[in-house]
Design brief:
This protein is about 15% helix and about 45% strand. The protein is α+β, with helices and mostly antiparallel strands and about 180 residues long. It has one domain (about 1-175). The protein has a nine-stranded antiparallel β-sheet with strand order 8-7-6-5-4-3-2-1-9. It is globular.
Length: about 180
């Protein structure tokens, strides 16, 4: 079961990555979708107990944030040695908000997950700081909060300001379209 879930998550992530180069340059996403967050890359551990992972994001919503669509996937490992375990999820947006400064927030409800007991969703804050000189020298930032069912039921996208400092991604790029 875990292998099947991992295979599905990997396919979703690879599919999203394949679409990103074409869509990242397409600033005229078909109406009525006006807000968009896309990107792919790697995150290094930000805090003790965090994990190195791969992320792929392709989300959109109407100009007012309604009708959020798309999916996001994170795949990685937490721990080390015999304690090393797979941590992966894929989710669809509950809400999405972008602003003209290149900031975005979105809440995901997971439709697939492994290695994250009791966690059913997450809220992300993304900052698009422009084009990197290369994907190995990223400038964009991201941070997230993972939610249980009660927290997810109260989550919203009212503000694009994160509750704490964001961290620069290790490799890759994100694009926020407002």
């Amino acid at each position: 079961m875990k292998r099947m879930l991992l295979a599905c998550l990997m396919c979703a992530a690879l599919g999203a990555v394949a679409l990103i180069p074409a869509s990242a340059s397409a600033n005229s996403y078909p109406a009525p979708h006006k807000q968009r967050v896309i990107g792919a890359g790697f995150l290094s551990p930000f805090d003790p107990g965090e994990f190195v992972n791969f992320f792929a994001i392709d989300l959109s919503a109407n100009a007012d944030g309604s009708n959020p669509q798309g999916a996001a996937t994170v795949i990685g490992y937490i721990g080390s040695g015999t304690q090393k375990g797979l941590h992966a999820f894929a989710g669809t947006p509950v809400c999405l908000k972008t602003d003209s400064s290149g900031a975005a927030t979105f809440v995901l409800k997971f439709f697939a997950s492994t290695g994250i007991d009791g966690i059913v969703g997450a809220r992300f804050w993304v900052q698009d700081n422009g084009n990197p000189s290369s994907l190995n020298n990223p400038v964009d930032q991201i941070i997230d909060d993972r939610y249980n069912a009660a927290q997810l039921s109260r989550a919203n996208c009212d503000s694009t300001t994160p509750p704490r400092a964001q961290h620069t991604i290790a490799k890759g790029d994100t694009v926020v379209i407002n």
